[in-house]
Amino acid sequence: MKRNRLVCGGEPWRAWAAWIGLTASAGIAAAGRPLTVDDADPVAPGAVEIEAGVEHSRDSGARLWTLSWALAAGIVPRLEAGASMGGHFEERIHRGDDGTSSSDHVHGVGDLTLGLKWLTLAGGPLGFRHALVPSVKLPTADDDHEIGSGEVDGDLHWVASRSLGERLGLHLTLGYLWIGGDEPDVVHGGAALDFLWTDTVQIVAETFAERERADGATTVVGSRAGVRLLASEALALDAAVAAGWSGDIPDWSATVGLTWTFGVR
């Protein structure tokens, strides 16, 4: 599973919580890595899908490396279950009023996310496939260093996917994140396209957004584009770059990773 969203305000490094959240929610499928927007198709019964990647993000307030892994397994037709976690390696930069700056380093594991993907409608209006994706995030990260929220969070989002011809796919998502503790809840969504350029190369792109349910909150908006190399029926390699357009989010990031599927298809 992947992509459990979290937006935080306040200190500059809290932008990284938003960015990590936007790149880690429940659900795995063709619109998975290196995108954050999922697609509606669960893993086939008896099959297992593993995603792994590394991402580097930076702006004037911090430099961050994250390692991520996600595992999903097909349980029965139309239903998958999965889990995701990662590693966090960050340099936080503190700038004084006199123009001087200092930094400190923080590292540790991230929160554990558990979730399901249920294909509720395989052939809906206009040809869309629809899925519901519930998940829960457990506070396994070091809250003292603000790597995680230190609370149990829950997320429920809807995903709709449609094939536009033989090579183009459209994916839409809209969800709600319940944040534990005193932090406000979050509404999030996005849209993605994937285009099979050749038999082995796929071009992918997306725009995503989220907003806290709090007075004066700003909308976080970002975009990501990349490529997926279909090395074999079981293995896909990927790379992408992303930029933040508004809100508390890093200026840019880059990621590389892979998706490996094995078992009965």
Give a written overview of the molecule:
The structure is a single chain. The protein is mostly beta strands and 265 residues long. The protein is 3% helix and 59% strand. It contains one helix and 13 strands. Strands 1-2-3-5-6-7-8-9-10-11-12-13 form a twelve-stranded antiparallel beta barrel. The protein is globular, with a radius of gyration of 18 Å. The two termini are 18 Å apart. The N terminus is likely disordered.
User: Averaged pLDDT, please?
Assistant: 84
Classify the beta-strand content into a percent band. Answer: over 45%
The run of helices and strands is: HEEEEEEEEEEEEE
* Strand order in the largest sheet: 1-2-3-5-6-7-8-9-10-11-12-13
Largest beta-sheet details: 12 strands, antiparallel, barrel
Global geometry: globular
Helix content estimate: under 10%
- The count of DSSP E runs of length 2 or more, i.e. the number of strands, is 13
The radius of gyration computed from the alpha-carbon positions, rounded to a whole number of angstroms, is 18 Å
Question: N-to-C terminal Cα separation, in Å?
Answer: 18 Å
Low-confidence stretches: 1-30
**Number of contiguous helices:** 1
Structural class from helices and strands?
mainly beta
